[in-house]
Write a structure and sequence with these properties.
The chain is an alpha+beta fold. Helices cover 22% and strands 13% of the residues. The chain starts with 5 loop residues before the first helix and ends in a 43-residue tail after the last strand. This is DUF2272 domain-containing protein.
């Protein structure tokens, strides 16, 4: 398992001061409003506010209640600026890797090391952007939200299955309790998770059985952060996730009178074709787990972040250089 403690994640931080910037925004309809992490009075509210802050930064793309993409403005690897007018979209994905403390864990992936010192004004290194394109970042986004929110006991990981497994195997140490999403009320700060791709794990029962039999096995998953669970009594849950259709995107799901997910779509888009649009929905997934944030957890202080990226070590240069890597060529040795 590649689970890192909160303190370990903070120790490895090296990113711009904007990572804890409470980006102001006007109130928006449904779900997020103008939630501000610095004004949060409890841990669930802070988690929700951090996820919502990032969603606003990406111009609030969302999937409607039928699971159709209703709005999108900028994609993950573009150089176009996000809502703060300063951060390129691709650079914000780097911030999620660095702000969660996870960039070092994936340093062996091609191009990852070239992301270490980039800034908003950096040349858009093809090697760094290649790493970002080739490496799923939804778990890095969730980890970023939890680390930036100061969730005690959360183990940041580049794989969702690690903190799902942590909640199942160590309910006393994890900040979450694992539950059946079809039988449990969601609340702000929870994580709703599904299994990606073809898998025998298709519901909560088969997930629990798989977790009991696999102490460290991999399972492709995706988790969204619940930012508003029927808070306005509108019968809807609003969730925010990273790497959804190339951005930080909101998902809207129906809630019934009991406060539970109502007719939560299960399965894949079988029969989805241009002439059968009713069969198409990005909400059709194998939803297998609701990670319930434990009530009453204390909020750790937000991380202390340096004013800018740490300076690269001396002699960081290349002799046999790759064009576009962003690493400068070493000067020629002095003549004898």
């Amino acid at each position: 398992m590649h689970i890192r403690g909160f303190a370990g994640a903070l120790a490895s931080l090296g990113m711009a001061s904007t990572l804890w910037l409470a980006t102001s925004g006007t109130a928006t309809a449904g779900g997020c409003g103008g939630k501000d992490p610095l004004q949060a009075r409890d841990l669930a509210s802070r988690i929700s506010a951090v996820a919502c802050r990032e969603h606003r930064l990406w111009y609030e793309p969302f999937l409607d209640i039928d699971g159709h993409l209703a709005s999108t403005t900028v994609a993950e690897m573009e150089t176009g600026l996000l809502g703060d007018g300063a951060t390129p979209a691709w650079k914000r994905v780097v911030d999620y890797w660095r702000g969660s403390g996870l960039l070092g864990e994936v340093a062996q992936r091609p191009g990852a090391s070239t992301c270490e010192y980039v800034t908003n004004d950096s040349y858009a290194s093809p090697n760094c952007r290649g790493f970002l394109i080739d490496t799923p970042w939804s778990a890095a986004f969730v980890s970023y939200v939890m680390v930036q929110s100061g969730v005690p006991g959360f183990g940041a990981s580049p794989s969702h299955i690690d903190y799902v497994r942590h909640a199942h195997r160590d309910p006393g140490g994890s900040p979450f309790l694992i539950a059946d999403p079809l039988a449990t009320e969601p609340a702000d700060g929870d994580l709703l998770c599904f299994v990606r791709g073809a898998s025998a794990v298709a519901d909560h029962t088969t997930l629990v059985d798989w977790l009991d039999r696999n102490g460290s096995g991999a399972l492709a998953m995706h988790c969204d952060v619940v930012v508003d669970a029927n808070g306005d009594g509108d019968g809807r849950a609003y969730l925010v996730g990273g790497n959804i259709l190339q951005g930080v995107t909101m998902r809207i799901l129906p809630i019934n009178r009991a406060g539970r997910f109502w007719n939560l779509p299960q399965g894949r888009n079988i029969g989805c074709r241009p002439d059968n649009a009713r069969a198409c929905s990005f909400n059709n997934q194998h939803w297998v787990a609701l990670l319930k944030l434990k009530p009453g957890l204390s909020m750790s202080p937000p991380p202390t972040i340096p004013a800018g990226p740490q300076a690269p070590p001396a002699q960081r240069c290349c002799v046999h250089c790759v064009v576009g890597s962003g690493v400068p060529r070493c000067p020629p040795p002095p003549s004898p």
